[in-house]
Design goal:
The chain is of the alpha+beta class. Helix content is about 45%, strand content about 20%.
Length: about 300
Amino acid sequence: MTADKASAQAERHLGGFAAHATATKRESVWFVQFTDGVEVVVKFHAGDARRRIGKERFIYDQAAPVRSLPVPRVLGFDEDGIILSRLPGIALEDALDALSPQDLDRLAEQLGVAVRALHSLVQPAFGYLLGWVHEPADTNRDYMERTFDVFLADWARYGGDPDLAQSIERLVSHRSGLFECCRQPVICHDDLNPANILVDKRSGGWQLTGIVDVENARAADPLMDVAKAGYYLFSSMVERLPRSPFIRGYGGLPDHAQELIPVYRIWSDLEMWVALAEAGTVGWRPALESDLKALVSGKGW
């Protein structure tokens, strides 16, 4: 994709501008600046563009009325791409070195508030989100057991440790009844990593200004999102944000969370391990295996 194409799409929908751009491997993301200084984001999706664009529209449109949830607004779209408002700030991953412990506490609490707001968006069934729930499951237990079976079959197919798989199966079987604690699926971002969290330095200190990139989103138990945030932000593998302020901002966790969140962490580790194996990439696979062993042995989340 080219800057000219991004510029042409923005002009068709929104008027005159000047443009500059950056690109990622999976998609082209262009930042377009209008002559009056207003900036927008133009995204061209690879692969099944219509589904990806439809998914972003669906989720951002649902989230738009929630005032405590900072997400982009959909400004326009066509069969190739989507135009979004550009939120202020930079990615959390680019700000971490500049943040004090007090800044990190404040941002973690603000993120907890925003994620809780996201989880107010209820869905009709459990499953992966497109512009609808794909292959919907009526209950969380059905959804989780079905997907665990798929991940563990792929784990075996790609040469994963069979003893570790057995330990995972035992733990999941023992705690599967806890899946039934969630009866109402909600929108879960499922990729709350520091690249998808925007922050900005204001006069009163650093502020959370955006949650972006909803391509992984699914309709699920909100604790699944808390577990995924833990994996990227405050797990045994990383310590980017403190956990306690996040939970405080979120409004606390139910009593069963301590037992169920490690199961969701295992689910996420398996999902990522399988994706890397399918791509023929070693990447984080050894670290994921180490994390799985720690979780199975009861070492936190």
